[in-house]
Specification:
- Belongs to the class-I aminoacyl-tRNA synthetase family.
- This is Glutamyl-tRNA synthetase 2, mitochondrial.
- By secondary structure, the protein is an alpha+beta fold.
- The chain has 2 domains: 1-80, HUPs (Rossmann fold, 3-Layer(aba) Sandwich); 82-115, no CATH class.
- The protein has 5 helices and 4 strands; from the N terminus they run ββααβαβαα.
- It has helices at residues 14-18, 32-42, 58-68, 98-103, 108-115; strands at residues 2-4, 8-10, 47-51, 74-78.
- The longest helix is centred in the first third of the chain and has 11 residues, at 32-42.
- The radius of gyration is 17 Å and the shape is elongated.
Length: 116
């Protein structure tokens, strides 16, 4: 169990739901789960902010931190920002750059309010 800074207490029984998680692919490359834990640890990340779709993976990440003997960061999972069609907003699509919002006369405080 862990306390998410947004959603409160959560628990995902990794062993019961997934069995033994894969952390290295057959080609020897790490999965996202191992890579993000190692990367965040070596960068000294204290807080991880990510989309709510990763909430269920946090228990797996915490198990990796424990297995490696590392102190985990705090986690906050944020509701997803969606496109008009309901798909997840992506940095790889559309006019999502701050410059586009400024050119359309959006106020900085309005953007902050929408995102939070």
């Amino acid at each position: 169990a862990f306390q998410d800074l947004v959603y409160g207490w959560n628990r995902h029984e990794v062993a019961n739901v997934e069995g033994d998680p894969v952390i290295l692919k057959s080609d020897g490359f790490p999965t996202y789960h191992l890579a993000c834990v190692v990367d965040d640890h070596h960068m000294g990340i204290s807080h991880v902010l990510r989309g709510s779709e990763w909430l269920v993976s946090t228990s797996k990440h915490l198990l990796l931190y424990q297995a490696l003997g590392w102190q985990p960061p705090r986690f906050a999972h944020l509701p997803l920002l969606l496109n008009r069609d309901g798909s997840k907003l992506s940095k790889r699509q559309g006019d999502i750059f701050l410059e586009h919002f400024a050119a359309a006369d959006f106020l900085p405080d309005a953007l902050l309010d929408i995102i939070t």
